Amino acid sequence: MTLESYILLKLAHILLFVYWLGGDIGVFYSARFVRNSSYSLDSRKLALKILGWIDQIPRYCLVLMLPVGYSLASEIGLVNLPTISLLLLWFIGSLWLGVVWWIHHYQGTVLAERLRSIDLVWRFILVAGLLWDSVQSLRGEGHIFAKWIAIKFMLFAAIIFCGIMIRILGKPLGPALRNVFANGSTPQLETIVQSTFAKTRPFVLIIWFLLVCAAYVGIAK
Predict the structure, then answer these.
(1) Each residue's pLDDT tens digit, 20-38
(2) Using 50, 70 and 90 to split pLDDT, how confident is the model at 3?
(3) Could you report the per-residue pLDDT of 73-121, keeping only the tens digit for each?
(4) Whole-angstrom Cα distance, residue 142 to residue 14?
(5) How far apart are CA 111 and CA 121, in angstroms?
(6) For the chain, how big is the Rg over CA atoms in Å?
(7) What is the DSSP string of 161-210?
């Protein structure tokens, strides 16, 4: 790989972090208007639409961070992966990106819900795989040659796990909001909306903290 390609990879890695954290903050702020029952239903629908669009940016960044991060680490000699493995990683990343896009744009369809279930299982597998790679590296084995890379992989696994918890704990939110928009607000539905946001909020904040930690590790290595 040329120096120019390496610089572009490094730039992509930085931009993914920036847009991931920035997009997440936008989602967090938009959620205030979605859960606020004092706003009209039309205003809350608009806020939810904006939230849903912005939320795709961190999702795409998470997916792309995997092949970009591995490729960058491989380029500087800190990860030992054959070219075919890196190409396979980019193929899987592209496929995963397509799945995430399909789930968002065709949400509510049978196929989108099936893909959502597959995506959830894949994230559990990915968490386990990243933790395994990290532990192997910290033991002086495996294909990762730098402990700080192993720590970043461990933090990335923790971030994905937090996302899984947000999805699981946030499951009641969609049906509750659809009911609110279709049939009007009720105290019971608003309680579900408020409590669901309250349950998922800590994991959002933890993701921000972990992203900053990962950035710090990369800088202070």
Answers:
(1) 999 999 999 999 999 999 9
(2) low
(3) 988 888 888 889 999 999 999 999 999 999 999 988 899 999 999 999 9
(4) 26
(5) 16
(6) 19
(7) HHHHHHHHHTTTHHHHHHHHHHH---HHHHHHHHHHHHHHHHHHHHHHHH
Helix 3-35 / helix 187-220 crossing angle, nearest 10 deg? 160
Q: How many CB atoms lie within 10 A of CB 188?
A: 9
What is the CB-side half-sphere exposure of residue 190 using CA atoms within 13 A? 12
pLDDT band at 141 (very low <50, low <70, confident <90, very high): confident
Q: How far apart are the C-alpha atoms of 39 and 198, rounded to whole Å? A: 19
Note whether 54 and 26 are within 8 A (CB): yes
The strand ranges marked E within the chain are none
Distance between CA atoms of 197 and 218, rounded to whole angstroms? 31
Judged by DSSP in three states, 146 sits in coil
Residue in the structure block whose two tokens are 């040659």: 145
What are the DSSP calls for 77-126, one per residue? Answer: TSB---HHHHHHHHHHHHHHHHHHHHHHHTTTSHHHHHHHHHHHHHHHHH
Strand partners, 144: 79
31 CB contacts (<8 Å, ≥6 apart)?
51, 197
Q: Which of 63, 18, 70, 47 has its CA nearest to residue 177?
A: 47
Of 124, 113, 110, 71, the C-alpha closest to 93 is: 71
Name the residue type at position 77.
G
pLDDT of residue 120: 96
Bridge partners (DSSP) of residue 79 are 144
The number of beta carbons lying within 10 Å of the beta carbon of residue 179 is 16
